[in-house]
Task: structure prediction
Amino acid sequence: MTRFTGTTSFILCLALGFAGAARADESDAACDAPQTQVDMTLCAVQDWRAADAELNAAYADARTALREVDAGLPVTDRGAEAALVDAQRAWITMRDKGCAAEGYLVRGGSMEPMLVAGCMARVTRARTTDLTILATPMEGP
Result:
């Protein structure tokens, strides 16, 4: 479900290409104590990728839960799953633009891709928490 807007996509592509080419043969064990900007950027991108995988699982669970909610409603009242899909699309745009804005704090510097990837991971984890709550059945009184 993840999509990127222009600036964020460009920055992360640079980070992935640069960091990946420089460290393609190394595991994420180096992320315990990264020593260079390339290592720090690569670790931030790896962290964001892990957060994104968690988000995708939580999103699938939330869609399933809301599909079940819709199934229990009269046809004219259904729309829970569609509302989630719309919200997720809007959230992706907000995340990408917000993290691109955060990157402007060090615009053009070698830290920019790391800052953007770190923001993506942080914001994605917060959204994952929201989706997990949404997918959790409500308990009655």
Notes: The helical segments are 6-23, 37-71, 80-103, 112-135. The mean pLDDT is 87.
